[in-house]
Amino acid sequence: MSRSPAGLAARWPADPVRTGEAEVALRVVGPRQVILLIDGMESSFHDLDDPAHLEFEYMQHIDALVGATRGDRTPIRALHLGGAGCSLATAWDALRPGSMQLAVEWDGELARLAREWFPLPRSPRLRIRNGDARAALDSFPQGRWDVIVRDVFVRAQVPAHLCDQGAARSALHALREDGIYAVNLADSPPLVEARAEARVLASVFEHVVMVVDPAIIRGRRYGNVVLGASRRPIDDVDLARRVRTLPLPARVVAGSALARFAGSSG
User: Fold this and answer.
1) DSSP code, position 157
2) What is the pLDDT of residue 266?
3) Residue extents of the structural domains in the chain
4) Which of 186, 194, 193 minimizes the C-alpha distance to 210?
5) DSSP annotation of 14
6) What is the pLDDT of residues 140-180, one digit of tens each?
7) Is the pLDDT of residue 47 over 60?
8) Which of 60, 92, 103, 198 has its CA 20 to 30 A from that of 45?
């Protein structure tokens, strides 16, 4: 099979594919743009002409968080818990040359299809490991990663063993002293899950921030919430500047405002 972008686009399947774990499908949204769906949910976006293009708002928020803590274009060692189509890893490979990344994906057939369907960075720039995200997280030596991204869902829910205090402690252990842990979750009013996760992270990490669409935090709709946690202070002023420039500006919640949010039962 041709590995050129044009060749890949020509081979995108028209019908859904069963992996044994889920139904995956491609929605072509442009001549060379496609969205990966897992059990009907949008999971990854690829633009064959622009690998740095991040279409999904929550990925833009994670990218802004990493930019505020690690700077721009700096190579990173990044662990992605939840691989799917690896669009964030693909963007960082383009935006941060020299980065070394690992994606842990439970669905081995999905990982194989992602390699077949999309022009993903090759190993060692991006390795994909088949396995359980929590088991992988627990296995790494101290200080292995600059960035850990948790983006794991099973039927629209984050598995409980990935959002407890033990998972947060494992992330803290596996991060460098100045590393950042970015978690993605989806919640609806009154944001009970987001509040609980903020409390868990704050019990383990010294510094926690939240990036969210204002409509979500005001209780107007369901959507993604991104939390960032680190041993080191997170420049929430720089982060706020970054997210204000996005196509759909977001809100940064930090310090006492985040403590009040996390401490409320909604």
Assistant:
1) B
2) 44
3) 52-263
4) 194
5) S
6) 999 999 999 999 998 778 999 999 999 999 999 999 999 99
7) yes
8) 198
CA 41 to chain CA centroid, nearest Å? 15
- Residue 85 has a pLDDT of 95
β-strands 100-105, 77-81 pairing: parallel
Strand order in the sheet with 17-18: 17-18, 23-30, 33-38, 41-47
Sheet with 100-105: strands ordered across: 126-130, 100-105, 77-81, 145-150, 175-187, 223-230, 207-212, 251-254
How much helix, strand and coil, in percent to the nearest 5, is found in the chain? 35, 30, 35
Helix intervals (H) in the chain: 5-10, 57-70, 87-95, 108-117, 133-139, 165-174, 192-204, 214-217, 236-244, 255-263
* CATH number of the domain located at residue range(s) 52-263 in this protein: 3.40.50.150
How distant, in Å, are the alpha carbons of 37, 60, 87, 94, 95 from that of 52? 20, 11, 9, 6, 6
Check: CB of residue 58 under 8 Å from CB of residue 42: no
* pLDDT tens column, 52-104: 999 999 999 999 999 999 999 999 999 999 989 999 999 999 999 999 999 99
pLDDT for residue 200: 98
Please answer whether residues 149 and 104 qualify as being in contact, where contact means their C-beta atoms are separated by less than 8 angstroms: no
Q: What pLDDT does residue 155 have?
A: 79
Tokens of 40: 């009907």
Residues 165/134, Cβ–Cβ less than 8 Å: no
Entry field: residues in the chain: 266
Q: What is the pLDDT of residue 3?
A: 57
